[in-house]
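Entry for the shared binder. Reason: the reviewer on the internal report wants the predicted structure included alongside the sequence.
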Amino acid sequence: MFLENTVNHKEQFGWIEVIAGSMFSGKTEELIRRLKRAQFAKLKTEIFKPMVDTRYDQEMVVSHDANEIRSTPVPAAANIRILADTCDVIGIDEAQFFDDEIVTVCNDLANKGVRVIVAGLDMDFKGNPFGPMPALMATAEYVTKVHAICTRTGNLANYSFRKSNNDNLVLLGETEAYEPLSRGAFYKAMLKEKVKEIDVTSEEIKNKQKGTNG
C-alpha cells in the first residue's frame, strides 16, 4: 500500500492506518516496512510499543522474521500523546495491549496532521474482538487485514489458537504457545477443547461421588 502520494499539503490533517490480523500474519513486518519508508523520506518518525511486550527486546520492535526498528516502550496510551507531539509519522505495535485511550490518542494525533500507523491482533485467543482494535479499525481511513497460513489445513488463517490451558487474556508467546488457524480448523480445535472440559468435569463429579459414597 502506497499512501505517501495521498498527502494534501494544504490540509493540515493526518490519518490512521490499521494493520490487523492473527499471530504470525506479518503485521509487525508490514508496520516496520511502512515506518522505514517514512524514515527514508526523512520524515520525523517515532515508534511505540506497550511496555508489557518484551518477547524479543526491551526497546526494539521485532518481527517474527527478525526485522527490527528502534521503539519507545510506554506504560499507557497517554504517554504516546506527549512523546509524539512533534512527529510526522508514528507507529504503534501490539495496539491490542493498550488501554482504550489509545483510540482517542490516535485520532487526536491524526487531527493534528500526524500519519498514525497501528498494528495489532484483531481477535484474542477465543476469537473475540481484542481490546481497542475494533474501535481503531472503525475510525481509521485505511485498514489492511493480513493473514497467516493455517498450520493444520494450509488455508489462510485469521485466528490465533492458544495451545496452552492458560486462560489469561494477555499471554505473550510464540509458536510454543500459539498457532494460526483457519476458521474451520479453529472451530474444530475449540470444540475439542470444550469436549475435554466436559470430560474433566464429569470425571471430577464421579470422583466426588465415589468419595461421598465411600
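Summary line for the report: Residues 44 and 87 are 5 Å apart (CA to CA).
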